[in-house]
Structures are given as structure tokens and as C-alpha cells.
Amino acid sequence: MATIVDNIRHQAWIHQLVETPYKQYFNVDLELYGSGRGSTAVENELIGFSIKSSRKAYILLIDIDPHGTVNVLYPYTPSEMAPIEANRLLPFKDLTRVTPPFGRDYLQAYAFTDINEDYKALRGKSFSLSSPYAKNLQRLIQNNSIDKARASLEVVTSKAN
Question: Is 108 helix (H, G, I), strand (E, B) or coil?
Fold first, then answer.
């Protein structure tokens, strides 16, 4: 069972990932596909996303669930490790079904002009703040030698009535 201190650490870490100022070298767009209720989704609803970068880039799409677990949604398979072309829509319709835990999910789409071992290590992973993968993610997004961009989206999930 997580302690209050663990929960505070997770929330501070999530805040750092989501709210820390980020130098944009180009644009990346992230949009939600769903039922049309804005950024709210209910249990068992299929949702997806689309991403578009203004430059040829390697994409990293993560979901931070209400418990602070980071889920790498893209790249998930080895074939998804290739860059996408500039201004090409990368659609993920019906990517996932809404399941517990319910609450506030933070989606982050990152676009990188180059990749390194930290990016490769994250493929398809799910992890928490205490995982070594958290350090991979932090090093990757703070790497000043790679041009990058970020887009964020907040999705509120709830149990169906």
C-alpha cells in the first residue's frame, strides 16, 4: 500500500513532467479521438489519439495514470521505432479502452529529431517513479543535444453510470 509520502512524491514527479517549462524547437500536436465529450472518457469507452510533428521526428507517447504509473503507448513494437515524416498524421484510433484506475490521466507526446539509448529503453514500458526507466525518461526529455517538442493533453476518466 502506498504511503502518503509516496503519493506526494509521485504527484510532485508528475507535476515536474507535465508542468515544467519546456523549450520547443518545433511543433508537435496531440489530439484525442473519442466520443466527442471533450477530454472526458468513461469506463469501456474506446479512445485514441493523433500526433503530428512539424519536423521529421521520433515520437514518444506516454500516459501517466492517476496512480502515477507511466505507460509508454508509442513506440510499443520495434517497427514503431522509425521516425515519422514532417506533417504526417500518426493516428491511433481506438488505441485503448478506458479501465480503472479512474481519475486524471496526463498524456504527453514528445517528438525528437534524434534518439539515444534512453529512448530505446522506454519502448513499451510501464513504470513508476522508483523505476530505473523514470531516469531514462528524465534524461531523454532534459537532453539538450537533441531538438525536441512536447504536447500535453489531460483526460478525465470515470466509471460508467
Answer: strand
**Strands (DSSP E) found in 3-147:** 28-33, 40-42, 46-53, 58-64, 70-74, 90-97, 103-112, 126-127
On whether the CB atoms of residues 150 and 22 are closer than 8 A, the answer is: yes
Q: Is the CB of residue 61 less than 8 Å from the CB of residue 107?
A: yes
Stretches where the chain sits below pLDDT 70 are 1-2, 10, 18, 34-38
| DSSP 8-state secondary structure symbol assigned to residue 155 | E
The predicted pLDDT at position 37 comes to 60
pTM for this entry: 0.89
Read off the C-alpha cell for 14. 508528475
Largest CA distance in the chain: 48
**Other CB atoms within 10 A of residue 91 CB:** 13
Total domains in the chain come to 1
Strand order of the β-sheet with 90-97 is 28-33, 46-53, 90-97
CATH assignment of the domain containing 104: 2.60.40.2550
Check: CB of residue 7 under 8 Å from CB of residue 24: no
- Cα gap 1→39, rounded to integer Å: 30
